[in-house]
Design the sequence.
């Protein structure tokens, strides 16, 4: 697959088959993440791979936290998070993505985002679907405590699995809307 095909063809896949993803395939996908550029070559990303009961237990904690948030602030305040949780529960693999935050630089966060993009692109290249998930931030302190990562920053999650259908083609802004050329 040509790189530009992966960049333009990758979609956020919200419906995944329950089929397990072999560990060697997950490792291949994470290896692509590990090749991302990083601030001062620090490789600030870390991945916690959840499957089976480990995924179920985390999602149970997330559901309890989300329900408490809804009870306190109202359903309208959580947007798509309940739907995203259903996707997380059905996905065969859930990656929790961290920033080691060794220096506290904003560029460390950029490094982790580059690794997450590589993960999503490689998953697509291998015929898997992925969804970059920010809704885990509704349980940010709970997730950090759950995994004992108090010195790290939660950067998000990625669900992985074999697609059960195709993702919608998003409307994109034109290059002229997002770029300026100065001479």
Sequence:
């Amino acid at each position: 697959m040509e790189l530009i095909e992966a960049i333009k063809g990758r979609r956020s896949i919200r419906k995944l088959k329950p089929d397990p993803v072999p560990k060697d395939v997950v490792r291949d996908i994470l290896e692509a993440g590990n090749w991302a550029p990083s601030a001062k070559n620090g490789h600030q990303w870390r991945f916690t791979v959840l499957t089976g009961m480990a995924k179920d237990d985390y999602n149970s904690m997330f559901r309890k936290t989300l329900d408490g948030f809804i009870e306190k602030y109202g359903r309208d305040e959580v947007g798509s998070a309940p739907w995203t949780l259903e996707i997380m529960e059905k996905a065969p693999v859930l990656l929790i993505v961290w920033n080691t935050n060794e220096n506290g630089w904003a560029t460390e966060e950029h490094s982790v985002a580059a690794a997450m993009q590589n993960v999503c692109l490689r998953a697509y290249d291998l015929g898997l679907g992925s969804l970059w998930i920010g809704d885990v931030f509704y349980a940010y302190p709970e997730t950090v405590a759950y995994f004992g990562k108090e010195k790290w920053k939660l950067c998000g999650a990625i669900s992985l699995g074999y697609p059960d259908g195709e993702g919608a083609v998003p409307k994109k802004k034109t290059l002229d809307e997002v770029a300026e050329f100065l001479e």
Remarks:
- Strands lie at 45-50, 93-99, 129-133, 153-161.
- The mean pLDDT is 96.
